[in-house]
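Supplementary Note 3. Input sequence used for the single-chain structure prediction.
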Amino acid sequence: MRTIITAVFCLFLLCPAAPAAPASRQPAQQAPAAQADPATQAALRSASAAYGKKEYAGAIRQLTPLAEAGNAQAAFALGLMAIRGHGMPQSPETAAKWWTRAARANFPDAQYHLGLLHHRGLLGPRKAELAREWWTRAAENGQGDAMFGLAQMMRAGDGGPGDMNGSLRWFNAAADLGHPGAAFELGMMCKTGQGLPKDMNKARAYFQKAAAAGMPQAKQELEKLPKK
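The predicted structure, written as discrete structure tokens, is reproduced below.
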């Protein structure tokens, strides 16, 4: 998935699924600056270039006024830098501050990452209800990792009532976006008959989809399936 720090967080996610944006991207590149004016676009490009050169202080100087003026992309980027400890002390709390601004502006990746902080209990006690709330918002905004995480929470009754129909809907939505974890889960359901009717052909198709996205577990499951 576009998708996020392996030491503490899979370097930019927190890792239950594929990243919401490739870790190789620079913070100011995580999503397009929708309808941003030319000056803002130029500042974001400049901040991204500074980050790529590891000139973190320069990137922060350019991103901070944009974020404080309400630019969600800049706020999200500052949250990434805080979670990575780039140019500032590594701090989930600082990341949450910036991601909350971006999430309230309806920025899907920020909504996902903010939910992930609550899901993992990185801001204090784990708050599954808040994680589910933010992942619901992000999923409704098309964020694939949030769809996958929300599907898992709904299946487990984590942070709210269990909802298998809702879980399947979000697993399918994430798989349609190319999320390998979601395709794998659907394949396992079809293989075992738990959650979906047992169907080896469908299981094979889902595992093939996950394997094509580079998921080794899916390749292993394909090898276990009976030959056609």
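The CA atoms of residues 20 and 145 lie 6 Å apart. Residues 38-52 form the longest helix (15 residues).
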